[in-house]
């Protein structure tokens, strides 16, 4: 429920406080289920792999990560953020690389210069029952444009944070990248009247841009 209190975040007893969309929120602590999905197990395996990799570095390599970590800030929480440790930066970079099947790195990479994001909008069509989801791409998305999406949602929703990685953006044809196959492989074919949320971001050297979100309602045939 929404409360009037000083800004706070975290668990206290059986209550959990957080900053909600419309202000301070407090909820009863609930222990989440652990379905051990394929996605969960992949993330856990990647984190274990990266943690083992950190222990194989030389002391000079770890010091290089520590020095570079001081130049990056954590995400703000209650208006506060701090410098990353070398381990935090190492995990941030290498867990992202592992997620997309790329080689882990021993030395901290430089922050890349990202080009403009290729996907510009999402269109859902329904031609005689054949549903297609396409991203308008005036430019080439390259090999590292990451696409995430939600399962089909109610058309009345305006926000959806529950998205999953579909893969990298396909090469466009006639200015559009068809992500239908990626979506159906993850969630199945959406039904008419549902709303699809898609996020696009770029990943390079283990760094990722802030995702840009698009949405579209699947029309009737």
Task: Produce the secondary structure layout.
Elements: E1 10-12, E2 15-20, E3 23-28, H1 38-56, H2 59-69, H3 86-99, E4 121-127, E5 130-136, E6 145-149, E7 164-168, E8 176-178, H4 180-187, E9 195-204, E10 207-208, E11 212-217
Antiparallel strand pairs: 1-2, 2-3, 4-5, 5-8, 6-7, 6-9, 9-10, 9-11
Helix pairs in contact: 1-3, 2-3
Overall number of structural domains: 3
Number of helices, where a helix is a run of at least 4 consecutive DSSP H or I residues: 4
Task: Write down the CATH class of the largest domain.
Answer: Mainly Beta
- N-to-C CA distance: 41 Å
What is the name of the CATH architecture of the largest domain?
Answer: Sandwich
Q: What would you call the structural class?
A: alpha+beta
Order of helices and strands: EEEHHHEEEEEHEEE
CATH topology label of the largest domain = Immunoglobulin-like
Key features of this structure:
alpha+beta; 221 residues; five-stranded antiparallel beta sheet; globular; Immunoglobulin-like; three-stranded antiparallel beta sheet; 4 helices; 3 domains
């Amino acid at each position: 429920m929404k409360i009037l209190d000083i800004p706070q975040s975290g668990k206290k007893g059986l209550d959990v406080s957080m900053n909600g969309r419309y202000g301070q929120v407090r909820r009863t602590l609930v222990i989440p289920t652990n379905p051990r999905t394929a996605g969960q197990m992949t993330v856990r395996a990647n984190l274990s792999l990266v943690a083992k990799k950190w222990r194989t570095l030389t002391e000079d390599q770890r010091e290089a990560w520590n020095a570079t970590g001081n130049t990056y800030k954590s995400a703000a929480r209650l208006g506060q953020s701090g410098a990353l440790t070398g381990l935090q930066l190492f995990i941030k970079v290498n867990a992202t690389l592992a997620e997309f099947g790329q080689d882990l790195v021993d030395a901290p990479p430089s922050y890349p210069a990202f080009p403009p994001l290729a996907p510009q909008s999402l269109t859902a069509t329904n031609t005689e029952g054949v549903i297609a989801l396409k991203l308008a791409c005036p430019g080439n998305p390259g090999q590292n444009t990451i696409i995430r999406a939600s399962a089909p949602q109610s058309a009345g929703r305006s926000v959806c944070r529950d998205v999953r990685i579909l893969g990298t953006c396909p090469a466009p044809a006639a200015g559009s990248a068809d992500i239908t196959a990626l979506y159906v492989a993850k969630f199945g074919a959406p039904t008419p009247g549902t709303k699809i949320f898609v996020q696009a971001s770029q990943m390079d050297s283990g760094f990722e841009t802030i995702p840009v979100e698009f949405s579209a309602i699947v029309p009737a045939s």
